[in-house]
Amino acid sequence: MTEKILLVDDETAILQGYQRLLRSEFQVDTVVGGPAALLAIEQNGPYAVVVSDMRMPQMNGVQLLARVKSIAPDTIRIMLTGNADLETAMNAVNEGSIFRFLTKPCNKETMGKILTAGLVQYRLVTAEKDLLEKTLSGCIRVLTEVLSLVNPAAFGRAMRVRRYVGHVAQGLRLANPWRFEIAAMMSQLGCVTLDPATVDAVYSSQELSPEEQQRYDVHPMVARDLLRNIPRMEPIAWMIAHQNQPAETGDHVLEREAVELQMGAEILQVALEFDDMVRRGGSKTEAGHLLSRRHGGLDPDVFQALVELETEKEERPVRASPIEELTSGMTVEQDVRDSAGTLIVAKGQEISFPVLLKLRSLRQKGTVAETITVSVPAGAAEKPATPPGMAKAASAVTK
Predict the structure, then answer these.
(1) What is the pLDDT of residue 359?
(2) Among 200-204, 245-249, 297-301, the least confident range
(3) Which of 139, 218, 237, 265 could in theory staple to 246 by disulfide, Cβ–Cβ 3.0 to 4.6 A?
């Protein structure tokens, strides 16, 4: 068993005794007192199981495990006390979501069984979470691929905003960071209903007609309607819908997860505004300062994270490549437009297999240039392999 267990008590001798009994079967750390336990979780976590004594100075077991639930919700929480009164048990269960409630003295066999049950529960919880995150991420990648084909400008913006939001979530150590990144990735999904020329005009700072502006303004609500019927996507749909008005209240989803969703919508709004300013030539520092004044109620670390985000500077060989020689994994280094001026692939977009098929199809029609300026990741093969099972499809397009 590789998962770690944390034992918390205010008596060192008791901790040493349990460690001697359990260390042959479990990976056990011990700390004295609640504050030290929280510090250990922050510095040495994650812990699969936390076992806490009830009676401790400064912070009792109920208070500690309630905090653990907040900062490490996947951790399984077990209470150990010599005061097995009903009120203590009820408080522990209600405030700390306790997995098991044990009384002192607790022998090795009983403790071992409970810890094993806790580890099994932890694996179930984390496996479900991992499956959920990977499944949702896979679905989202499909949707973003569709967006990249239908509206390259919107896709390019979504990928930039995803990078901003991901950096902020990491810097703030937010719980469920994948939610914020998926919200950023899907923030422009509603643009699939718009004429690509409209989106291109918005990102080029061109003035829209009143009708075009009205259609563009509702794209967050379109994305919300597309996403909110997907299980577990309701909170993400809410954040996207409120990317331009995060302070609005009264929504039933907001009432359930107020803090996380409110912050997510605000971070998304700031990231979008930051992208607008930087794309129009403003410096990151100026944009950060202006946004910090405009959104004074938001954590200052959000703006600091945006300002400190370094530009990606991976060394990549750049060359003009015939479309027939393009491969998945290359990155487009200039906007690709057709003969009518419509944006086909935005600068900075990685070439995926569907994009590759689209370019080859358009080249066969003679509506795009023969060569495109691309870069190849450092260390990659000169001609990366076509995805398995796709070679025949690629060949068919070029015939």
Answers:
(1) 92
(2) 245-249
(3) 265
Per DSSP, the chain holds a count of helices (H) and strands (E) of 17, 10
Name the architecture of domain 4-124: 3-Layer(aba) Sandwich (3.40)
The candidate with the shortest Cα–Cα distance to 157, out of 123, 202, 114, is: 202
Q: What is the DSSP letter of 245?
A: -
Residues 20-52: tens digit of each pLDDT? 889 889 999 999 999 999 999 999 989 999 999
CATH 3.40.50.2300 domain range(s) in the chain: 4-124
CA neighbor of 126 nearest in space, from 3, 264, 40: 3
48-88: pLDDT as tens digits: 999 999 889 989 888 899 899 888 989 999 988 876 566 66
Fold classification of 151-308 (topology level): Hypothetical protein af1432 (1.10.3210)
In DSSP notation, 85-137 reads: -HHHHHHHHHHH--SEEEESS--HHHHHHHHHHHHHHHHHHHHHHHHHHHHHH
Distance between CA atoms of residues 368 and 372, nearest Å? 9
* CATH 1.10.3210.10 domain residues, the chain: 151-308
